[in-house]
Amino acid sequence: MERKDLQERLEKIREKIAEIWPSLDLPTKQARITELKKEMSRNDFWDDNEKATAVSQECAGLENFAGIWTELKANTDGLLDLLSEYTDDDLAEVEAEITTLEEKFAQAETEALLSDDHDSKSAILKISTGNGGQDAEDFSQMLLRMYLRFAEKKGWKTKILDESPSDVGLKSATIEIKGHNVYGFLKSEHGVHRLIRLSPFNAKNLRQTSFSRVEVLPEIKLDTEIEIAEKDLRIDVFRASGNGGQSVNTTDSAVRITYLPLNLSVTCQNEKSQLQNKNSALKVLKSRLLQLKLEQNAEKLDELRGEILDNSFGSQIRTYTLQPYKLVKDHRTNFEHNNPDKVFDGDLDGFVQAFLRR
Q1: Do 143 and 175 meet the contact criterion of CB atoms below 8 Å apart?
Q2: pLDDT in tens, 260-300
Q3: What's this model's pTM, rounded to 2 decimal places?
């Protein structure tokens, strides 16, 4: 590539950074980092483990955000200033650095788009098998692995709160994903997903369409944001099933909480104690009610309607096609990925970026 072309690419990155820089409000973020670090230095900081973890995650997220943008600006300006001093033999190496800068800018710009009230929060993700029989159960298992791989690549922490396996895959699963901006990145996944492939469970190997619903909920604290009257809850306990550690399958530790006005149920059975499962289930329930409020623009819980998207044909947000061709297409943004294997291995950044820029 010619030196002039490299300069144009660098100037384009610098223009984009200059355009977005005022909206980043880095001085305010730096002041917040200082405030959080002062709080973290207190001797009793870790007395409340949940609060301390949240503060630590917020501080780390803000430091990472500010660091990325500061480094992007410095590296872009530095390359532009030194470009004339590089020899022609160095230009291939410079081009590789510019490509890396462009990729880092795209990722940083995506994170900068996360400005909604709940975007910075951790998330609870629930997968429910829809139409399609064994293929749908296998598809749900594939989606669970996809999201766990995506979270692993982002450095987020995951914990399975509830899992209902089947002979070939998964009937449903609920996972907690902790980290900065988890909900903002994953809210694009909320909806019905469709898989088209030659069925490995069909003796004639016919093409099969199957469905799975993904719910992405902003995680909220038990004592904030959503207040539920005790009379509106029914709490059932039972013995956990499936895989479990010590005491998980030997006592009535599993908990199902039903929000009676909407007949909305949440189950948690992967914790060791009934109290832990109850708290986890209540957290998931409150997060689902908050998500319904956001979707329906309701101010109060009694304004909510119990509507939920059909887990079948006609309501899908994304289609994963493995036969007769290979393609993953998001129907809201028209973003496409021609390598489903990479997508199922957690390569979701393109879908996230397209959704946030929409």
Answers
A1: no
A2: 999 999 999 988 889 999 999 999 999 999 888 888 888 88
A3: 0.78
Fill in the DSSP letter of residue 308.
-
Judge whether 170 and 144 are in contact, CB under 8 Å.
yes
Q: Which residues pair with 319 in a beta bridge?
A: 194, 329
Paired with 209 in beta bridges are: 196
Q: How many residues does the chain have?
A: 358
Residue whose pair of structure tokens reads 């900068």 in the numeric block? 112
- Least Cα distance to 348 among 132, 116, 193 occurs for 193
Alpha-carbon distance 269 to 252, whole Å? 9
Helix residue ranges, H only, 115-260: 133-154, 182-186
Q: Which domains are present in the chain?
A: 3-112 (1.20.58.410), 123-222+307-357 (3.30.70.1660)
Type of residue numbered 46: W
Is the dihedral angle over the CA atoms 75, 77, 81, 83 positive or is it negative? positive
Task: For residue 126, give the H/E element and its range.
Answer: strand 123-129
What's the burial of 73, exposed, middle or buried (CB within 10 Å: 0-12/13-18/19+)?
Answer: middle
